[in-house]
Amino acid sequence: MTEQSVRWGILATGGIAAAFTADLVDLPDAEVVAVASRTEASATAFAERFGIPRAYGDWDALARDEDIDVVYVATPHSAHRAAAGLCLEAGRNVLCEKAFTLNTREAEELVALSRARGSFLMEAMWMYCNPVIRRLADLVLDGAIGEVRNVQADFGLAGPFPPSHRLRDPEQGGGALLDLGVYPVSFAQLLLGEPADIAARAVLSDEGVDLQTGALLSWESGALASVHCSLIGGTATTASVTGSQGRIDIPYGFFHTDSFVLHRDGRDPEEFTAGPADGPRGSLKHEAREVMRALRAGETESPLVPLDGTLAVMRTLDAIRDRVGVRYPGESPRETGEPELTPA
Asked: Alpha carbon 85 to chain centroid distance?
């Protein structure tokens, strides 16, 4: 790593890897130097597409490449523990897609490994790095709408997805919750912290994954959050935060929004929008910039996406799965049992 350039490795070659790499190659201070896939053909095709100099047909070769400053792990979340763990063991820094892992145990293992090695580790929760979401969180923290009473957020896709699709495959951690529901849960916990109690219901597929899930999260303060995710219905995909003195509404695509409206009691609505320097809606550059800023500062985790916050979200996802009866192959009852919840 130099002051001018951070060297990235890309682990996996799917859609999100392509989207992230496309944004990376557009950053003047980022250099994509290697890519790995389970097959050399896939890695080579990806490398040719983006002008990446080195392509590996296995993950281990990428993890051992000492010319890489940080690896972006973009596999399905069922493989995050193995892929990110391999890179951390080899001394690489890691940005790992969300959901961070299948369960809290796996997440705790990665966090413990990164802290023991002194390596940087961050969940790729791009929502937390979005300048508009950061502005919203600052307003809530500063009391712009008073005490938070309620959060609502949803993310649903119309589908239908066939049983063979990864979203319905238990072996790949399929289901609405880990793929989509992680956003509404993370949004609520960004504003309120970890909930004190959780209730949930779901519709399960024949394969045993959740086709849609709704959860009610509650805090000792009296605040409630209603979160919903679906693979069988295209929802509004909006969010709102209601306080004792006002409300904030976020339009479609709340997790990568470029605007929101602040309603304060006795005042006209105020619209906040992304500035010219914030880039286009849906940009993944914000999280890439945060990783590179942290690496240059010698930080081992990001204050925007702290590891303790990632673990708290994983505990909530585990608790929801426990309530609705979703368990993945190889998990023990303890791994999807009710975790200890720390009141906010």
From this structure: 17
Q: Is the whole-model pTM more than 0.85?
A: yes
> How many percent of the chain have pLDDT more than 90?
91
CA distance 149 to 160: 35
Structure tokens at 195: 């909930």
Above 50 in pLDDT, residue 340?
no
Residue 161 phi/psi, 5° resolution?
-110, 130
Instruction: List, for residues 137-196, the tens digit of each pLDDT value.
Output: 999 999 999 999 999 999 999 999 999 999 999 999 999 999 999 999 999 999 999 999
CB atoms within 10 A of CB 67: 11
Q: Do the beta carbons of residue 331 and residue 171 sit within 8 Å?
A: no
Which of 72-76, 175-179, 272-276 shows the lowest per-residue confidence on average (mean pLDDT)?
272-276
Residue 201's φ and ψ, nearest 5 degrees, are -140, 155
Mark whether 285 is an active-site residue: no
Alpha carbon of 276 to those of 32, 127, 289: distances in Å? 26, 18, 16
Which residues, in sequence order, are bridge partners of residue 260? 272
Catalytic residue (choose from 92, 98, 247, 321):
98
Q: Which tokens is 57 given?
A: 């047909």
